[in-house]
Amino acid sequence: MQLALRHITKRFGSLVANDDISLTVEPGEIHCLLGENGAGKSTLMNVLYGLYGADEGEIVLDGEVQSFSGPGDAIAAGIGMVHQHFMLIPVFSVSENVMLGHEATGFAGSLDLDAARTRVREISDRFGFHVNPDAIVEDLPVGVQQRVEIIKALSRDAEVLVFDEPTAVLTPQETDELMEIMRQLRASGKAIVFITHKLREVREVADRITVIRLGKVVGEASPTASNAELASLMVGRPVELTVHKEPPTLGADALVVSGLTVADANGLVHVNDISFTIRAGEVLAVAGVQGNGQTELTEALLGLQEHVIGSITLDGKELVGRSVRQILDVGVGFIPEDRQADGLVGEFTIAENLMLDRSFGAPFVRAAAVQRAELEAFAERTLSEYDIRAPGISTQADMLSGGNQQKLVVARELSRDLRLLVAAQPTRGVDVGSIEFIHQQIVATRDSGVPVLVVSTELDEVTALADRIMVVYRGQVVGIVPADTPREVLGLMMTGERPAGEVA
């Protein structure tokens, strides 16, 4: 099925999110839509999927102009969408999620789950998805949950598949698996729209690339284009893809973690007897496949884990046993791995989110009253300094693009007087321009003498930011090695293999 978008324009008040956009996607083609967060990519696809109505322009499938009043119409026309944030019911089985919305019924109107199971098996076997129809979704790894989303779309005979930032929550291994799935779908004749801002992925699978900036198509590019060329098209200026930093000026031991063990309420150990030290003015980056204790480690440092054994000292002061509020107040900044769940209050404004860590006293609260003038002046200044793109400081956080949400979290944490920065997946789901900016801010924090712990599943990010690298596997430290350790060695360490020789 051929898809053509012709002169699509979508406005939200005075904001023109899509401005006269046209593109065509052929059957058996992966057409990549590349652009910064907030460029209008997802808005365009939401118009295609019937979630928004276009103010101008038309959607054409196989030469016929379409009129969608909602996603049901788009699905019936053969369009399927795999969202960045999965549209699954966690407590339902795979089969129940797949049949949701077009339930097959049997005798006396009962749900025909057997038919759904058969359909899941057929699609799973055809594309090698290896998905159990009876598995409960919340028990599945993120990468498998994404396959369930794809099965949902294919079960409704989708011929045009839209992947909206599909790798934002995936590990490198899961990303590679998704790339292979997309190639299989292309080979089967599906027309695929791939929305992303990750240059490596674009060059790996795209047949054609359309670049959108500030709501407009600014050019087309070949997958053979260099990273620098693609990045420049995306942001409208040359982008520095390499992190430049001077050798660290190291101070005394600042964060000292000794014998740290973290277990959940059921007694399952996620962090097992970890010890490490970060000196003032140093970045220690944690590398490892997601799910090997990184989340529990960072949460333990912030007092968010209840079952903790061992010692965590910052500038000689013990943090274990302190409340989250007390830990924040001693100067610990925290960029959480999930900005929506843990970093922001979506219904709060930009200004309100910027004061979350400091809502109990000066400068924003005095005598239990919010000092609006002080807060608004700070918010306006921060909006400009951190290049947070929004209509104004009264914009709700959930109305921002992912990259601007992340910059909002970074701005709040780095605008405080810090003694330690803990940054978990600091650039997950953000575009190349925002990555450049966030990396610069982390390096500047380190250069100011603050110890920094960075946790990332992106090896490029780990090696770019780190002064030393700590590799974890199944909740234990495999080794702490220099930042210039070859990727091949780091990859082996991430499987649990210990390096030869002494560690740093």
Q: Features of this protein?
A:
504 residues, alpha/beta, 17 helices, 26% strand, globular, ABC transporter ATP-binding protein, ATP-binding
Examine the secondary-structure arrangement and name the CATH architecture of the largest domain.
3-Layer(aba) Sandwich
Look at the structure and give the mean pLDDT: 89
Q: What's the Cα radius of gyration?
A: 24 Å
CATH homologous superfamily title of the largest domain: P-loop containing nucleotide triphosphate hydrolases
Organism: Nocardioides taihuensis
Protein name: ABC transporter ATP-binding protein
Domain ABC transporter: 3-239, 255-499
GO molecular function: ATP binding
Helix-strand layout with pairing:
Elements: E1 3-12, E2 15-25, E3 29-34, H1 41-48, E4 56-61, E5 64-66, H2 71-76, E6 79-82, H3 94-99, H4 113-127, H5 142-155, E7 160-164, H6 172-187, E8 191-196, H7 199-205, E9 208-213, E10 216-221, H8 227-235, E11 253-263, E12 269-279, E13 283-287, H9 294-301, E14 307-314, E15 317-318, H10 324-329, E16 332-335, H11 339-343, H12 350-354, E17 365-366, E18 369-370, H13 372-385, H14 402-414, E19 420-424, H15 432-447, E20 452-456, H16 459-465, E21 468-473, E22 476-482, H17 487-493
Parallel strand pairs: 3-8, 3-9, 6-7, 7-8, 13-20, 13-21, 16-19, 19-20
Antiparallel strand pairs: 1-2, 1-4, 4-5, 9-10, 11-12, 11-14, 14-15, 17-18, 21-22
